[in-house]
């Protein structure tokens, strides 16, 4: 197994495909089943319990913060005039962004026949679902009276009130909730054959019943595979425009306003690229740990990290280009308010946040021009964490620097998050990591049937 | 109905009465053998049969003589339906249930309704894909006779199977078993139960 780390990735060539092999180590059908089932069937390592304990404590922090919020009201947060949108929207956009890589890796790379996606797509999809769960918390709790959240839904009520469909905030409700739903459907459909594999290997009755229930009675029949593959292809085809639309709609929340710094047409593509950028960084962060802890070195090879690093380089460069274009347009438009907003962004009171964002998002991924950097696991981990920090700051910069000096200098202010803002944000990581820790223990984290399909001996001729 | 048969291995040259059986299950080593065996079963004119594999073996539908999946129609119809419902809902709410004039725009200002219409269309299409998959492949079904076979438990692992139902007009017990052996089956067994 250690071979994967020592050998240069191009050293061995798949005899049929004339490409580097996608699976190293025990690359047999049985070997793949064993490797992927091990974390589900074995007693987890101590580290797993430690991670679960930390995640659960963070999760309880989220519970406490939300309970206190509901009791006391949103006055416990730092949101105030002029910065009426603070941490809740920053965290919402951050988490929705993280959620984008899952669908991108799964659906877009599937449509482009990028078969290297098979080893990482399951984890990436799971990450998407958990990130969308975290994201949905923030708009849910920031409305002040959370027990009235159902007012956002188009359902008849006794006040004869209906949502305003011309509002981008309303589009957001639909976009994100439907994105979450479709991601779950896509993820579950992909899981069905693997759940059947786990069911057939189950030693205890309770496992057999539980996995059996969710495997729907799958029996790998080719008549079933035919419908399965068509449904999977079409879901990927639906998810691809969906993933582009979701973050575009999120950006409309800002772009349809009249505020300098938000009111720009570059926002939809810029937000989508940034979302994919942060999402891939999160996938890399998670995969580095999963690969070591669950001995997946043969399945998640340096080739996969190399390709993901290239994705980060591409999307990171798009994001850097967008930062530059914002300044160019501010100057070229001749609009003094727009110009002030951007000079203030880079050299005003929040310059520290702006330059953290630039160094993490624009400068650090440029390392990935070098193959040595793309295949250095430690460096990948560090840069991917930097990117996540940088992308959080990007949303912070967009939201806060545009608001804190508005049109009326007498109302200018300096936004500082409160303790509860910070605890709620940390708590959302608790939810994310709790779900992820349970996922790696109880569900196959690599798509077993898909990985078998990319082995050379899977070809019938 | 005769007394139920248990899933049993058929020894060479042993005649077995197949009344009451679901059919036979033949096991193969690799996708290549399975592919050519499927061509053989197809050419012998069977219709109530299936191949079982741990992963989709591409091109096997050709060897089996199967038609393309109609799941796409479910997606098309439910996707367009979802988009229509989405736009209709917004039209109804904006023009009659809760009419509000916003900066002098018409009540049915449809360009603003496109994002939600699109999202509803995607939701409908995704639901169509799942419903199409489930209804066409007759799932969920947890009680299939093939699950009585112990060897069949490796279908999700590394083994490849062909099952032929006893209901098939061409099914002839021992002759069918012999045919499967000639096609390269490593192991053939009877499966109990009346299937459908």
Protein model, in words:
Chain A is mostly helical. Helices cover 68% and strands 0% of the residues of chain A. Chain A is built from 17 helices and no strands. The two termini of chain A are 29 Å apart. Chain B has 196 residues and is α+β, with helices and mostly antiparallel strands. Chain B has five helices and four strands; from the N terminus they run E-H-E-H-H-H-E-H-E. In chain B, strands 2-3-1-4 form a four-stranded antiparallel sheet. In chain B, helix 3 (71-97) runs antiparallel to helix 4. Chain B is elongated, with a radius of gyration of 25 Å. Mean pLDDT of chain B is 82; it is low at 1-17. The chains are: A mainly alpha (461), B alpha+beta (196). Chains A and B meet through helix 2, helix 7, helix 9 and helix 17 of A and helix 1, strand 2, helix 2, helix 3 and helix 4 of B.
Brief overview:
Chain A is mainly α. In chain A, 68% of the residues lie in helices and 0% in strands.
Radius of gyration of chain A: 23 Å
Q: Which oligomerization state do the chains in this entry correspond to?
A: heterodimer
Rg of chain B: 25 Å
Percent helix of chain B: 25-40%
For the sheet with most strands of chain B, the description reads:
4 strands, antiparallel
Low-confidence stretches of chain A: 1-10
Helix-strand pattern of chain B: EHEHHHEHE
Strand content of chain B: 5-15%
- Helix-strand pattern of chain A: HHHHHHHHHHHHHHHHH
Q: What is the β-strand count of chain A? A: 0
How far apart are the termini of chain A? 29 Å
Q: Figure out the total of helices of chain A.
A: 17
Number of strands of chain B: 4
Distance between the termini of chain B: 15 Å
Question: DSSP strand (E) fraction of chain A?
Answer: under 5%
**Overall SS class of chain B:** alpha+beta
Indicate the overall shape of chain A: globular
Question: Top keywords for this entry?
Answer:
heterodimer; A: 461 residues; mainly alpha; 17 helices; globular; disordered N terminus; B: 196 residues; alpha+beta; 4-stranded antiparallel β-sheet; 4 strands; 39% helix; elongated
